[in-house]
Amino acid sequence: MIIKGKYYLVTALDWFYSPINGEPCKAAWGKAQIITMEETFKFKPLRPSTNWFLKLGMGEGSIMIGGCQIYYAIECAKRPFETKETYLEKGVPRTFNHIYFTEE
Fold first, then answer.
1. Of 20, 35, 73, 75, which is most buried, counting CB atoms within 10 Å of its CB?
2. What is the structure's pLDDT at 47?
3. Any domain includes 1
4. 34-67 pLDDT tens trace
5. With contact defined as beta carbons under 8 Å apart, do 26 and 96 qualify?
6. Nearest residue to 31 (alpha-carbon basis) of 65, 69, 70, 77
């Protein structure tokens, strides 16, 4: 169970792009808030759609992940270590972090 206001490290089923710098990420870390479609939009979606989202972060860099796109969610009060990876894109080395940090 995800508890509102606690910090979580969440891995997604697929890659997503950081809203800050556009880098590809596979996980996100931040303060959690559950958002339901029924509370927010005043209707309950049909079965094939997700009916809740996890919002990570409370500021400008916050993101929302559909409940059906969450692979793992681990309560993680301390900011995890950054893991940098370098790969070649058209012969040019690019370095990115697999974790998107919604807050410092």
1. 73
2. 67
3. no
4. 988 888 777 777 766 678 899 999 888 899 998 8
5. no
6. 77
What does pTM read for this prediction? 0.81
Distance between CA 36 and CA 34 in Å, rounded? 7
Residue 47 lies in a domain: yes
Cα separation of 23 and 35, whole Å?
Answer: 25
Q: For residue 36, what are the domain limits?
A: 7-101
pLDDT in tens, 61-86: 899 998 889 999 999 999 998 877 77
Give the span between the Cα atoms of 103 and 60, in whole angstroms.
9
**Dmax over Cα atoms in the chain, in whole Å?**
50
Residue 63 lies in a domain: yes
Task: For residue 2, tell me if it sits in a domain.
Answer: no
pLDDT, position 48: 62
* Number of structural domains found in the chain: 1
**How many C-beta neighbours within 10 Å does residue 101 have?**
20
